[in-house]
Automatic annotation (TrEMBL):
Record keywords: Cell membrane, Membrane, Transmembrane, Transmembrane helix
Region named Disordered: 1-41
Domain annotation Casparian strip membrane protein: ranges: 43-181
Residue stretches spanning the membrane: 88-115, 127-146, 171-192
Family affiliation: Belongs to the Casparian strip membrane proteins (CASP) family.
Protein name (record): CASP-like protein
Quaternary assembly: Homodimer and heterodimers.
Subcellular location per the Swiss-Prot or TrEMBL entry: Cell membrane
Main location (coarse class): membrane
Membrane-topology descriptor: Multi-pass membrane protein
Domain of life of the native organism: Eukaryota
Length: 210
């Protein structure tokens, strides 16, 4: 016995229902994959990141002000200021860059379109942490030579003749060290945010057993 074919309206309804089901499943897969690719950063970690970036600004500005305004004159040896030492100029330049970047990155870290781009914060955080390390190392050597001198190269200490200059420079170096520690913590946080976007590597033995 020959059965007649189903009406065309029923075929259209079946096709439409299948298409809707496929679109919903695709949307669910996209949302799940996007959530895996962009994990949410804990709010506590984000607040720590913001506080560290904000603390860099006043510390860097204070270090710059102490270094630039630091000068002392001696009737026997003349005037001494930060222009006379190249390492202090480098410290001032790095501090200025850190202060500007910390201020801009603090506001950028709360912008929705920039938060997902973790590499935008990872690269400059690592670079500035390295620059701060070199700057602190150079400034520490300068302070040490000013206080102790170097007998091998006949470089005598000068802090006995310029005590005010050495005391202000030591305070500026202490503030500079705090900025260094802040950027070291920021580099760790930005590295966590950047590499947490990737899945952990699979174990080769587990893949072979599977």
């Amino acid at each position: 016995m020959f059965l007649p074919p189903p009406p065309k309206e029923e075929e259209h309804l079946v096709l439409r229902s299948n298409q809707r089901w496929e679109t919903t499943t695709q949307e669910k897969e996209r949302s799940s994959s996007s959530s895996k690719q962009q994990p949410q950063v804990p709010m506590s970690l984000k607040l720590i990141d913001t506080c560290l970036r904000l603390s860099v600004v006043p510390l860097s500005v204070a270090a710059i002000w102490l270094t630039v305004t630091n000068h002392q004159s001696n009737p026997d040896y003349g005037n001494l200021d930060y222009h006379s030492i190249m390492g202090l100029k480098y410290m001032v330049g790095v501090s200025a860059v850190c202060a500007i970047y910390a201020l801009l990155s603090t506001f950028s870290s709360w912008v929705v379109c920039l938060v997902s781009k973790a590499w935008l914060f990872f690269v400059p955080d690592q670079v500035l942490a390295y620059l701060m390390t070199t700057s602190v190392a150079g400034a520490t050597e300068i302070v040490y030579l000013l206080n102790k001198g170097d007998k091998q190269v006949t470089w005598s200490e000068v802090c006995s003749s310029y005590p005010h200059f050495c005391s202000k420079l030591t305070i500026a170096l202490g503030l500079h060290v705090f900025v260094l520690f802040a950027f070291l913590f920021l580099s760790v946080i930005s590295a966590y945010r950047a590499f947490s976007l990737f899945d952990p590597p699979c174990d080769s033995q587990a893949n072979n057993n599977a």
